[in-house]
Design goal:
200 residues, alpha+beta, Membrane-bound Lytic Murein Transglycosylase D, Chain A, Immunoglobulin-like, 2 domains, 4-stranded antiparallel sheet, 3-stranded antiparallel sheet, 3 helices, 9 strands
Length: 200
Amino acid sequence: MRMFRLVILVALLFATVFAFVPTEKAAAQTGCARTHVVQAGQNLFRIGLLYNVSWTVLAQWNGIVNPNYVYAGQVLCVSGPVVPGTGGPYVPPATGGPITIYPGNPFGPTTEPRIYFPSVTLGQKFELRGYNFPRNTQITIGLTTLGGTAYTPYFTATTDATGQFYVTVTLPAAFVSAGSVAVEARTASGYYGRNWYYNR
């Protein structure tokens, strides 16, 4: 009787294991331009990162029903199916006009101006440091409250040969009891950095 139960248990175990094996298309089939052999510990998400492809797309390309189950040695299609061309000459996409570089343009400088507060004495003064500004340029420092209206210019500073500045600012009377202070450092050419702090 025990042997019979053991045989049934083993049969159920095999049936359960094979019931959840994903039915996947053969990745090495014709129509797949590039394949990847799954290594131990890899999952679809990590494989997708290697090839800049979403894991959901990988699952679709490979017919994987359960994306949580890939096994070492499995061959996956990672470049998508090859679609036969329609023929004809290659026509490059149309290009636009010239690109205008301005502050905040992602095609402009790789770094943008930043400001931060190395030290703050609540209700009295703050130290302001800025970097990534144009070199040897005058900076106008404006203040407002967090969520307030436009920045009002109060102070000026000049950047050094590396595009940095450091200044100590005494709060004007209008900001001594303000709940927050928002600061903007701006050049005449439009480069700016903003930051704020609670003044309580």
